[in-house]
Predict the 3D structure of the following.
Amino acid sequence: MNKDAIAYQVQRITQIPEPTLFAFVNGETANHVNKFHSSLPNYTPTPLVRLSKLASRLGISEILVKDESQRFDLNAFKVLGASYGIAKYLGKILKLNKDELTFSHIVAEKSKYEQITFVTATDGNHGRAVAWSANLLGCKSVVYLPKGASQARLDAIRKYGADASITTMNYDDTVLHAAQKAQAEGWILLQDTSWEGYEAVPTHIMQGYSTLITEYCQQQPDIWPTHVFVQAGVGSLAAGILARLCGLSDRPMPKFVVVEPQGAPCLFASKTHNKLFRVQGDLPTIMAGLACGEPSHLGWPLLKSAASGFLMCSDDVARRGMKVLGNPLTGDQRIISGESGAVTLGALFEILSNTDFLDIKQALNLTSASKVLLFSTEGDTDPEVYRDIVWR
């Protein structure tokens, strides 16, 4: 893989950012979020996979991967945000306090909200999560996908009762369309990005992602990462995880690395221009879940101030990650990871094994003592694409 496959920007973080930037996911909030998720039928924490043989091969101490392909039956992490976002909205209608925000308390009063329709735009995983959550809690849902979305992703959303369709627009314009339809039809917009005037729901969705760190702390109390790599579309997941890490004052802050596709690098471009920046065009990348042109207005200020690095990766980096995770060394566990889920492992693999990226390795201070936490955010959410890549 050539040197152009990964571009990077690194900044030295000398102190924890202004507390107001990460206060939306404090310890109390994270506990309430996890309590809600734990109340959902069939909830169980997703596996934390320790790839010891791969870490040894690459010359670092640990590689730990949260395998989100086993999140309920949804094959992706997005339901953590969508379910909590819907629950918070319904909880407000039902006048439930934080301790009452549980699945059983909400559905006990389903007759008061069952005519509500939630609408969203999605590259696939978020829309499926909204459809699943709305169906579980007894609401309706409408989901719009951007042009180029696969039939498999559309069918997966319709499976949960959503009125779903593919538009002729790119992702960002599809988000605008969903917002306009919400206003015209009286639907509730449940979008995992934010803009001026639309902040409450995206905040709840980012809070929902904090359960990933809560679970990690429960699953592996003895190994704390020196580095955390998180993929980004609009940056909501990355900001939600980073906010929780910033709030853990009893643990050292890991180096936090944001990973994006070359075809849709809105955060990398925002960092380059030192301001919120929208990437125009069709956003060509196989990483459908990360094909977003405009950063979340809520997430960007925190990522700008507290992320240690930004990586922009070619599609081949994601392909590498899928193949490595799907074909483990003897003694390591196999992880089925899709295009968006595997790019962080692909980036780590290339940085540590390819001398062309020695400058990135040194800039991020990846050494034999490094312990790296990754999130495989999706499984084979498009099975045909998955097979085509890993069999090729």
In short: Residues 78-198 form a domain with the Rossmann fold fold (CATH 3.40.50.1100). The chain is about 40% helix and 15% strand. The first strand starts at residue 6 and ends at 10.
